[in-house]
Amino acid sequence: MTSLWLRRALEESRARGFLGPKSVEFQIEHSRGFIDAWANFRPDAPHNVLDLGSGGGVPGLILLDHWNQRTVLLDSMERRTKFIGEVLAWPDVPAVGEVWRGRAEDLARERRGDSQFDLVTSRSFGSPATTAECAARLLNIGGLLIVSEPPQSRERWSVAGLGLLGLEVYGAVRDRAGFQVIRKVSATPSTYPRSSGIPKKRPLF
User: What is the C-alpha to C-alpha distance for residues 101 and 123, in angstroms, rounded to an integer?
Assistant: First the structure.
């Protein structure tokens, strides 16, 4: 059952232009695909989650509502993170939600981000190479990166490229939508992620 605060937050997010034109019901249903993808590989809820490029709060707010575990919504845009901060301060919202404003490449190297998360999610952050490089250092070893994939997408994830980051292809889920699941199997080398903007300009694969 969807909490009243969550529906209110997504309606407000869409009104401010932070979400696309699709209905709030669609946004919730699609975001639950991340939950199902996790459950395909892990029986218990993640202890902590980071939503990469959370934008208007999707899927981060849905994951927070469902699991009620520490959930960090990360975005580089001031207006969006300010809005998410407002939502997290509402009285009915779980107190374990956080918002971080900044670049993933930088925050991944900070103590609060480096190797801290069981799960990193990405809905529309960037290309596979950019997403993998920005997420890798945020994950603890054994943690999962779950990425929403385009419809009928072909294989987009390079085994060799992921290996450079300490990652491997773990599986895929086709349910409400397509989701690629990547696992961190070893420490990310100190050279990654590269400086802010470089993963997008010069992708590893």
Answer: 17
Q: Which residues of the chain have pLDDT under 70?
A: 152-153, 175-176
Host H or E run for residue 88: helix 78-88
pLDDT digits (tens, 9 = 90+) for 98-148: 999 999 999 999 999 999 999 999 999 999 999 999 999 999 999 999 999
- Nearest to 108, CA basis, from 166, 155, 69: 166
Domain ranges of the chain: 4-201
Task: State residue 153's pLDDT score.
Answer: 66
CATH (residue range 4-201):
3.40.50.150
pLDDT of residue 32: 95
Q: How far apart are alpha carbons 33 and 149 in whole angstroms?
A: 11
Cα–Cα distance measured from residue 30 to residue 178, given in angstroms and rounded to the nearest whole number: 10
Integer angstrom CA distances of residue 82 from 78, 95, 101, 107, 122 = 6, 17, 9, 18, 20
CB contact at 8 A, 72 and 48 = yes
User: Cα(164)–Cα(168) distance, rounded to whole angstroms?
Assistant: 10
**Maximum pairwise Cα distance, the chain:** 46
